[in-house]
Specification:
With about 240 residues, the protein is an alpha+beta fold. The protein has a single domain, classed as Aminopeptidase. Helix content is about 25%, strand content about 30%. The protein is built from six helices and twelve strands. The strands form two sheets. Strands 4, 5, 6, 7, 8, 9, 10, 11 and 12 form a nine-stranded mixed sheet that branches. The chain is globular. The relative contact order is 0.21. It comes from Segetibacter aerophilus. This is N-end rule aminoacyl transferase C-terminal domain-containing protein. One of its GO terms (molecular function) is arginyl-tRNA--protein transferase activity.
């Protein structure tokens, strides 16, 4: 694997314009740190695969047919956006999610998000989705002055047909639009895996990809994974 860089919070924490600048430079949250990398291993004893950071241009993002279908199917659920927290209800949902997904995740939701003994350096929010009083999905994100960054989405396995992971993405996008944010950072995509391809949802033409050596963002839909893989081999290894 290539180098892994991280930054710990200073006295100003990771908020407002400082958070925007780090996201624009390809840094992303991991617990209480901001990190960046050009490749990652998707599991133990697996080779590293190239990754490229993505962001969605909020004002340019349209809703494709799939997005509209998801919103229609979930229209009877209630949605709330509020400051982030983790309680027993969320941990119970996380446990169901953890046992359902085919990849490794942290033991608890709290472990994934932060370390309790360290002051929280982010301005964090959460989206909660309920079927009557039943919590069926929760999505976490951090916000800056002009940006939001999606951190994690969890959902109840019994509601698979509602595509609640993508529904949460749409709710975060709507929040960013309502708050007049410019960018929605969704993490990275990989040229060696399709696991992260959903991050171009719901409008690939509104997605930009970062070329970290140049610190330039370019339209993702004008490129191909083959081009990005070749670029990685030439300039990012």
């Amino acid at each position: 694997m290539g180098p892994f860089y991280y930054i710990a919070a200073d006295e100003n924490s990771f908020k407002n314009e400082s958070f925007d600048h780090l996201l624009a430079a390809g840094y992303y949250r991991m617990q209480h740190l901001m990190f960046t990398c050009n490749d990652t291993a998707l599991g133990e004893d697996m080779p590293a695969v190239p990754v490229f950071w993505l962001r969605t241009l909020v004002n340019q993002c349209g809703l494709n047919r799939a997005a509209k279908t998801i919103l229609k199917k979930a229209e009877n659920f209630s949605v709330s956006v509020q400051p982030a927290s983790v309680d027993d209800e969320v941990e119970s949902l996380y446990a169901l999610y953890k046992n359902h997904v085919p990849f490794s995740v942290s033991t608890t939701c709290t472990d994934y998000l932060h370390q309790e003994i360290v002051p929280h350096p982010f301005d964090s929010m959460m989206v909660q989705v309920r079927d009557d009083d039943k919590l069926i999905a929760t999505g976490y994100f951090d916000k800056g002055s002009q940006s939001i960054a999606g951190i994690m989405n969890i959902y109840h396995p019994d509601y698979n047909k509602y595509s609640l992971g993508k529904f949460l993405m749409l709710q975060k996008l709507q929040y960013a639009l309502s708050q007049k944010k410019t960018f929605y950072y969704t993490g990275y995509i990989s040229t060696g895996s399709t696991r992260f391809d959903y991050k171009t949802f719901p409008d690939p033409t509104a997605v930009e990809v970062l070329f970290p050596d140049k610190q330039e963002w370019q339209p993702y839909h004008l490129l191909s994974k083959a081009f990005l893989a070749e670029y990685y081999s030439k300039f990012l290894v």
